[in-house]
């Protein structure tokens, strides 16, 4: 076989020398396009990866990828940011859309619209989504055809690349603090003028339909409702402005109650807001409706009453009345708080490991953390592509060489069976060698 192959190769070289111009004019494989068409007919052919030379230039020259906000969220026309060992340029200036250094588009979920997208989308353009709100805010984002458009995500879901599930919880210390906690003795005394339950909500009739449930609950137990929804009790005048909802004075009013109705506006896994964290921080037992996975985030197994455990509002009302009358059973829901003992290891780990803070000047906010997360992942892709272009490309070249050799042998074998014998085989080999990198790959 080896001597036969050398003979064929010699004849090919001679033939090429004699009919250079003729072969160039008549060969059906003389250009790359037709060559690729021919080679793709054979399963032995392996496509050679195309190295990303622009990627290598970025790494070698030390220039930085551009991350373009497709929303005016940050208001920054241009900012170079250091993210660990990586540097990226962030901007809201859309004139960078077609800049060759633009590697990612950042979207804010509230502003996201399918009618205004940076199209056409290049293969090297990553899309990143930041959306801390519930699906109520922009329901399209949580449908599979939309959410799968994004390479990087930061949402309330624990499955996001940057999870914002605990975005309303400042720290573990805020949970265990007794700053606002009112003693049970005082709460029992206040029950003479306060209902056992308190409800504060001004966003009425949301997708969770919480108001319908609470209206039914009111038929079975007394509830003080300070908000616009099902309103029956007024706050002091200086607390009636929505901006006062995070004031110490407002917290002190809520802390006097035994139970707080904590109903989310949407029922989604991991969507947990201040409605849960606030009563836990104040030393009040939350009566919770919302995330089906809330138990994964509670400070202890007995720190909240879950609506899902009761078939009817009437049953819930009876349970709360029983706790209201039994100090020991009621205090069981506050034991974790009074002892400062959080048994939920997942909650402890998430708070400890998150790269952003809530009202913490010593840490980045979650938007900065999102930007750096995308920057880091973009650079990881750049390095991966560069490494593949160097290493994987060499391996693919060797595979291609072997594949083209086998293809050549196959063509020669077919030619020998046809009329013309060795001469026909020589022509096959001449055309093939002329347009392939066979000899180069064989040497590699």
UniProtKB/TrEMBL annotation:
Residue span, Fucosyltransferase C-terminal domain: 196-381
A cellular component annotation (GO) from this entry: Golgi membrane
Domain of life of the source: Eukaryota
Catalytic reactions of this protein: L-seryl-[protein] + GDP-beta-L-fucose = 3-O-(alpha-L-fucosyl)-L-seryl-[protein] + GDP + H(+); L-threonyl-[protein] + GDP-beta-L-fucose = 3-O-(alpha-L-fucosyl)-L-threonyl-[protein] + GDP + H(+)
Keywords in alphabetical order: Glycoprotein, Glycosyltransferase, Membrane, Signal, Signal-anchor, Transferase, Transmembrane, Transmembrane helix
EC number: 2.4.1.-
Signal peptide: 1-19
Sequence ranges assigned to domain Fucosyltransferase N-terminal in this UniProt record: 65-162
Function: Protein O-fucosyltransferase that specifically catalyzes O-fucosylation of serine or threonine residues in EMI domains of target proteins. Attaches fucose through an O-glycosidic linkage. O-fucosylation of EMI domain-containing proteins may be required for facilitating protein folding and secretion.
Family membership: Belongs to the glycosyltransferase 10 family.
Name of the protein: GDP-fucose protein O-fucosyltransferase
Gene source species: Crotalus adamanteus
